[in-house]
């Protein structure tokens, strides 16, 4: 469209008219465009170029010429030092690729600098030091920086994420600060191996990070690292990285025990292990067990996945169904595990994996199934087929657990409050959607076979990635949510109603952040036809306090919004209206509705109810 407008202006006999859009609207439009589209708009006219100039924020230097051109773009700009400072301040991401040592097409402008790569590295780092708003820096040939000391972390004043590859023992030699003090994410990859023997120990690596006092470091990623010795030398004094909350091990074996890792990372909250076994759980188990909130396991190479931590949430990704391993929760209180996410090729799994889920994970409150290779319709039919009848009496025999089939048992998943299923979009259906009758049958049977089920989420899309970094919650997948409303007075009259997706995703966020204490019996309450005031929009909302549902009533005449708290107690309920102040407290006046609900005599309303979420 932009090219057509410019072409029409050149062909017309009349001079092109200036765009009628104000400059601030043009800037707002350009903020949502990619660099290529923003550059196309800036070439429409001189006026638009002045309003929306091309702004380079991300640069990837794949060849030596790119380094020279980047240096010239910043320091040889027309306009002097002011323009150079402005251009450097726009840079937010710089990458020095591994192939940057190679040249592609030497020219007269670049040939004089191609003979000395160390000079080019100095030019690249000069641009990085000048970019005062630089947030991300990646250097693939870090061994040159170790040899020349070209990287000075103290000059990177606002850097947040650093990715270093091809690392040698110069990183832990000491005497030089490679890391900036503002660093939050540190990614160390491709540790050098000399004569098939690694040169860096895990103790030296952690000690070097500790000595630089990175008080803002919260995420540590270690990739392709097998140290030359175990962490037995840490038995006397283990380095402490107390600020690290997330540890990611990608094809890395620290050769450490659980006890030593818990000493090194005392405040660890999230652990991700990709394509390798777990640290050894040998010796005396720590008391209490090291606790994690989220644990991610991706294609473990061990015969069995041993989880020696107490965790609240487990994400298990298996891309090869034939090699699927069994989950073994050892040396930990597995009753604390309340959330399980299985990202698997299809809904048929090896017996060992699902059997452990049924036997040893009785406290699961939410279950997420993400299917990589099957469409949603086939997945729901498989799950629906495995729902038992009320009269069936199962025991944990081999006949009840086929080798390749998931089984839902009434007494094994009776704590599940939320079930989420993601699968591929069917190809045979011209509409690209699962038959609504299949969904309705699945919802009905799921509500019947899971007595505690409150919410069901279903989604289908063209591709489901096995990458552990992909998160399909929120807007990353077209989710549909349903709420199960149960009739306590008469069994079997349960109703399933669809709710807005944004409301369901808020529930997902709460469930992922909660632990066993928050998801104990009664925390979610029971939804039994809550009272809806006339002329208002009631939006049930999940809070951490038991039995509270929050809604809102909009008064169009006064343009005011009133919070509604519904307290469900026993067979009756009390609702109250009030306003929400900036401190997050609800000041309300209790009102009892005699037509819709009957207040329980044991119910009470706190005058200053603190909204935890």
TrEMBL record:
What name does the UniProt record give this protein? F-box domain-containing protein
Q: Which InterPro entries match?
A: F-box-like_dom_sf, F-box_dom
Q: Where is the F-box domain?
A: 15-52
């Amino acid at each position: 469209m932009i090219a057509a407008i410019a072409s029409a202006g050149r062909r017309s006999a009349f001079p092109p008219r200036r765009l009628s859009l104000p400059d601030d609207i043009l800037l707002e439009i350009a903020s949502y465009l990619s660099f290529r589209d923003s550059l196309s708009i800036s070439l429409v006219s001189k006026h638009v170029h002045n309003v929306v100039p091309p702004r380079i924020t991300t640069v990837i230097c794949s060849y030596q010429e790119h380094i020279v051109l980047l240096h010239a773009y910043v320091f040889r700009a027309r306009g002097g030092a002011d323009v150079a400072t402005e251009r450097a301040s726009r840079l937010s991401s710089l990458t020095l690729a591994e192939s940057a040592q190679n040249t592609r097409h030497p020219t007269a402008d670049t040939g004089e600098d191609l003979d000395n790569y160390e000079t080019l590295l100095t030019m690249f780092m000069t641009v990085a030091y000048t970019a005062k708003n630089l947030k991300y820096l990646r250097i693939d040939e870090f061994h040159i920086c170790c040899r020349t000391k070209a990287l000075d972390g103290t000059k990177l004043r606002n850097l947040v994420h650093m990715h270093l590859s091809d690392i040698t023992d110069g990183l832990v030699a000491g005497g030089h600060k490679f890391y900036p003090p503002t660093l939050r994410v540190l990614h160390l990859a491709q540790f050098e191996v000399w004569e098939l023997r690694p040169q860096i120990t895990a103790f030296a690596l952690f000690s070097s990070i500790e000595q630089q006092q990175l008080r803002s470091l919260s995420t540590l990623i270690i990739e392709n690292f097998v140290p030359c010795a175990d962490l037995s030398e840490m038995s006397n004094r283990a380095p402490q990285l107390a600020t690290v909350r997330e540890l990611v091990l990608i094809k890395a074996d620290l050769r450490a025990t659980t006890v030593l890792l818990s000493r090194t990372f005392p405040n660890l909250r999230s652990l991700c292990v990709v394509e390798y076994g777990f640290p050894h759980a040998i010796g005396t188990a720590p008391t209490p067990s090291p606790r994690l909130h989220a644990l991610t396991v991706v294609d473990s190479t061990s015969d069995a996945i041993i989880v020696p931590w107490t965790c609240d949430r487990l994400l298990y990704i298996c891309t090869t169904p034939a090699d699927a391993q069994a989950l073994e929760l050892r040396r930990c209180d597995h009753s604390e595990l309340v959330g399980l996410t299985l990202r698997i090729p299809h809904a048929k799994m090896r017996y060992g994996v699902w059997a452990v889920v049924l036997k040893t994970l009785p406290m699961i409150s939410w279950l997420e199934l993400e299917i990589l290779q099957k469409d949603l319709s086939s997945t729901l039919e498989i799950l629906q087929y495995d729902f038992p009848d009320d009269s069936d009496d199962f025991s944990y025999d081999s006949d009840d657990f086929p080798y390749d089939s998931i089984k839902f048992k009434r007494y094994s998943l009776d704590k599940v409050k939320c079930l989420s299923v993601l699968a591929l979009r069917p190809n045979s259906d011209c509409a690209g959607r699962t038959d609504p009758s299949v969904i309705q049958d699945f919802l009905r049977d799921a509500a019947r076979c899971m007595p505690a089920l409150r919410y069901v989420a279903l989604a289908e899309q063209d591709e489901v990635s096995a990458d552990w970094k992909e998160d399909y919650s929120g807007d990353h997948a077209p989710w549909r949510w349903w709420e199960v409303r149960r009739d306590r007075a008469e069994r079997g009259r349960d109703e399933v109603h669809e709710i807005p997706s944004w409301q369901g995703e808020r529930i997902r966020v709460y469930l992922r952040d909660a632990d066993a204490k928050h998801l104990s019996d009664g925390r979610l309450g029971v939804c039994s036809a809550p009272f809806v005031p006339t002329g208002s929009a009631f939006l049930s909302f999940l809070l951490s306090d038991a039995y509270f549902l929050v809604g809102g009533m909009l008064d169009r005449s006064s343009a005011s919004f009133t919070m509604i708290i519904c307290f469900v107690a026993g067979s009756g309920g009390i609702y109250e209206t009030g306003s929400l102040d900036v401190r997050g407290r609800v000041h309300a006046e209790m009102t009892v509705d005699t037509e819709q609900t009957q207040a329980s005599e044991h119910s009470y309303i706190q005058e200053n109810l603190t909204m935890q979420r």
